[in-house]
Structures are given as C-alpha cells and as structure tokens.
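Repro:
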Amino acid sequence: MDLRERFRLASNRCSIALGTPTAFVLAVVVVVCWAVTGPLFGYSDSWQLVINTGTTVVTFLMVFMIQATQNRDSLAIQLKLDELIRALKHARTGLVHLEDWPDEELEHLKAEFQKLSSKETVSTGALLSENAAPGEHRIDEEKINEQKIEGRMIKDKRGAA
C-alpha cells in the first residue's frame, strides 16, 4: 500500500472517529482536567503552554486530515452528479465540469437558473398532481405527457423538450 492510500485510510478513519460525540466528550474532559490542574501549577506559563501547544498541534494536523476527507468526498459527489447529468437524455452535458468554470461564468449560470426557476414555477403549477398531499410538490406525469403532445414543454437553451 502506497503513502497516498495510507493517508486516505488514516484521514477517513480519523474523520469518522473524531466526528463522534465520544471524541467531543473526551476533548471536553481534557480541557476540564487541564483547567482543574491550574491551581496545582499556580497558573504558570508552563501550565498554559501545555494546552496552547497541544491544541495548536492537534489543530494543525486536523486541518490536513479534514481537508483530505473533504476533497475526497467532494470529488465523489462531483462524479456522481456528473454521471446523473450524463444519464439524463435532455441534460446539458456541458455542465459536467462546472467546478472548473471561472466565478463570473458560475454567477451568470446561477442567474440563468434563477430566471428559469421562476418561469418554471409558474408553468409547472398546472403540472402538480391533484393527489399530492398538502405541501408536497409531486409532478403529475399524465399532465406532462399531455403537454409534450401539445408541444408546450419548457425548452432549454438547446431547444430540447
């Protein structure tokens, strides 16, 4: 097993173990024990240095562990979303690598989707199922098929229905 794989396993295990209530309680116990020993050491500089050094080292190491785990999780989610986009017949596959776009392009696309969302909210109101429970927004497939036949489906930039 290479270094990268060992680091991946270690960071994954650490993030799982340290993200538990038990780990939090253990951290609180350490801080309480440190605080209780304050009078024993006369609240000396050495006593303060112990907690400062300990927390600094742990924080420094945890930054790398958390970042590694976040990067991996983010990549996995991105790949899953890419697969969903590719699998949809009328999806704009140009959005697959959206994470690589410049911020200005993302803002432009966000504005475009907000406009589409407001338009679709109005036009899909008629598509909601009459059988949907209050607060539930279930689309009635029959109404969608009727609109497809009548040619009134909302079209995206490519003009696909």
